[in-house]
Amino acid sequence: MRNRFDEQLELLNREMTEMGAMCETLIEAAIKGLMTGDTFWTQQVKAEGCMVDEMERSIESRCMKLLLHQQPVAKDLRQISAALKMITDMERIGDQAEDIAEISTYIKGHSPESMGVIGEMAQATIQMVTGSIDAYVRKDIRLAEKVIARDDSVDEYFIKMKKIIIKWIADNPEDGEFALDLLMIAKYLERIGDHATNIAEWVIYSLTGHHKEAKSE
Q1: CATH topology of domain 2-208
Q2: Which residue, 70, 82, 93, 193, has fewest beta-carbon neighbours within 10 Å?
Q3: Angle, CA of 83, 86 and 88, to the nearest 5°
Q4: Is pLDDT at 56 greater than 60 in this prediction?
Q5: Of 185, 176, 186, 192, which is closest to residue 42 (Cα–Cα)?
Q6: Every domain of the chain and the residues it spans
């Protein structure tokens, strides 16, 4: 019975890793669409966004079966319940990548300094998402803590973006709508960082039984 349970936990880990990889791909594609103006990337985001939703449902079903039929011990119970929380954050990461892709379709012909900062901010959030999922699979508290610490860097990028956008509007008042679109993209990236932080917090809970209050939307 325990061997069967361990096999199911391993499948859960694989699915969690796959879902995390999908989220990384979505963010990368959304940013490529923003930077290049190529609608190929935005179409990819839309297609794979549906896959993230399907993966969430699949993992949720697996977790519920493990809880109902396998009678997990306390440590296993924490791991499964943490996975259920984490997939909610991953699904929202996918949604926010889709939001970025949608906004990027309205932004063409602009390449101010802020675009470079957006790219750097995106890379920082992708690293957080990758790290949080790796921490879950490896059962690595220190890696989870590193992810949480990186959230300060993403917040700093957001503050920098706001300053750049304020100056951009002052110098180019006719581009106010463009500037606000960029601010929304930066806000979505900040939220992705918050969700990655939530995932890392749930990793720590799964290993220690202690959990800080998750960041809200």
Answers
A1: Methane Monooxygenase Hydroxylase; Chain G, domain 1 (1.20.58)
A2: 70
A3: 115
A4: yes
A5: 185
A6: 2-208
